């Protein structure tokens, strides 16, 4: 059990399992009978930085930040390329056209109860002006 912290990662899985089972059997008894070495080994095997608790390699955060910034930059590039290459907005999206649509709806009394033609001030709809 001496130096198990250094040897554990390089041990064969069967050997690791054998050590763990021996320690597990020893831990079932009185803990005061365990040596300090057995207590340290038990703690390391149960909670040490190995397997899923392995610490990330130094500098890994730099890769994460770099890839995140690269993907955000690439997304921004694609967005700007799409926006610059897009067709102009249709004529129906101009404020003048939308105001004219509102006036036409009022003249034709479209949705007289809850829409733009409503006579009730609390139920008055917004109409079509968006931009």
Automatic annotation (TrEMBL):
Nuclease is among the record's keywords: no
Cited SUPFAM superfamilies: Mitochondrial cytochrome c oxidase subunit IV
InterPro entries: Cyt_c_oxidase_su4_fam, Cyt_c_oxidase_su4_sf
Record membrane topology: Single-pass membrane protein
Compartments where found: Mitochondrion inner membrane
Broad class of where this protein is predominantly found: mitochondrion
GO cellular component: mitochondrial inner membrane; respiratory chain complex IV
GO molecular function annotations of the record: oxidoreductase activity
GO biological process: mitochondrial electron transport, cytochrome c to oxygen
Organism superkingdom: Eukaryota
Pathway assignment: Energy metabolism; oxidative phosphorylation
CDD domains for this protein: Cyt_c_Oxidase_IV (cd00922)
Keyword Cell membrane: no
Keywords: Membrane, Mitochondrion, Mitochondrion inner membrane, Oxidoreductase, Transit peptide, Transmembrane, Transmembrane helix
Family: Belongs to the cytochrome c oxidase IV family.
This protein's name: Cytochrome c oxidase polypeptide V
Gene source species: Ascodesmis nigricans
């Amino acid at each position: 059990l001496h130096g198990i912290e250094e040897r554990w990662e390089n041990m064969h899985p069967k050997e690791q399992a054998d050590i763990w089972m021996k320690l597990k059997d020893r831990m079932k008894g009185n803990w005061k009978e365990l040596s300090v070495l057995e207590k340290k080994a038990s703690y390391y095997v149960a909670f040490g930085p190995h397997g899923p608790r392995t610490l990330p390699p130094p500098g890994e955060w730099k890769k994460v930040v770099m890839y995140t910034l690269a993907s955000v930059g690439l997304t921004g590039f694609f967005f700007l390329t799409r926006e610059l290459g897009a067709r102009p907005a249709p004529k129906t999206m101009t404020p003048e056209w939308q105001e004219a649509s509102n006036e036409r709806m009022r003249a034709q009394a479209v949705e007289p109860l809850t829409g733009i033609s409503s006579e009730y001030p609390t139920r008055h709809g917004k109409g079509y002006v968006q931009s």
